[in-house]
């Protein structure tokens, strides 16, 4: 094979994407490097659950080979730090020879490319959806925190995505048994016959989120979702199974509605976080006469912070775990609305500016 020539900036850009999904076992530890002979090079890696494709520029003949991902990535990164700008890659028998300038010559044993697995989309894609990166990124940020950490119920480790064709509406939901976070945004285009409902692993969406910019193209298959951003494509295995019918968990009537300044509420909650009992971790909200008292106590003392509110309905005392009430930080509005049905029933928190976002939280008994 003749030399495959890749500039430093190009190969570093590609490796920055694919090195994050290199696996640890024999079948997933490689980076596949493919050149089409027309100036395009594709770097690919996977960890059995997610695969990354990164397209970069490179000159050379059509070829494909598999190299140990971590070793190759580390070698190129360190060589780039030494000031080398061009890398020449040449396959000689079962060895990859890497040249940089006149000083660096390294030989790496190639892996068997036949062992490399590609996440092929099914022949028929159920839907192709186009969205902008910013609202998708925001929705991921405002839902992934509520994904379950435990793997006892894998479906709860997913972000539940509902995409409506006619309304051009994308709904993302996460829940862990104590709280539900829900965010909606509009999409640009939907190509497909019917609405789509899929469960994408929350940790993978969180990983992809920082890379999203510009127009994002999402292709939905039966078991795989493909998310393309710029010159990078992520293919993720979906979580199978039926998601919790979360809408049935929402109260249908409320006894008390409260409008409160978000910044002041969050400051009060943070202060209570210092004082609240380390075991129970309770924060109490006492709502009475247009005032909400946010309070906490432990063996060393107590704190009470009074906030002016707009109140409609009954007076109420209700307690929450400090960990979950702190999640109001994921709202951006000036004020939030607390919809309360009773001291032992779920609370619904929403932005007062009608932004399509909702947070459901279970109270704790005192």
CATH architecture of the largest domain: Roll
Estimate what percentage of residues fall within beta strands: 35-45%
Distance between the termini: 73 Å
User: CATH-wise, what's the superfamily of the largest domain?
Assistant: DNA Polymerase III, subunit A, domain 2
Note the overall shape: elongated
**What is the third-level CATH name, the topology of the largest domain?**
DNA Polymerase III, Chain A, domain 2
Unreliable parts: none
Average of pLDDT: 94
**Tally the helices: what do you get?**
6
Largest sheet, if any? 13 strands, antiparallel
Could you give the count of β-strands? 26
Q: How would you describe this protein?
A:
- There is one protein chain.
- This protein has 366 residues and is α+β, with helices and mostly antiparallel strands.
- It has helices at residues 8-18, 69-81, 133-141, 202-209, 262-275, 322-325, and strands spanning 4-7, 30-35, 40-46, 50-57, 63-68, 86-92, 95-100, 104-111, 127-132, 158-164, 169-175, 179-186, 189-192, 196-201, 215-220, 224-229, 232-237, 256-261, 282-288, 291-298, 301-308, 310-313, 316-321, 335-340, 347-351, 357-361.
- The strands form three sheets. The protein has a 13-stranded antiparallel sheet.
- The termini are far apart.
- The model has no long low-confidence stretch (mean pLDDT 94).
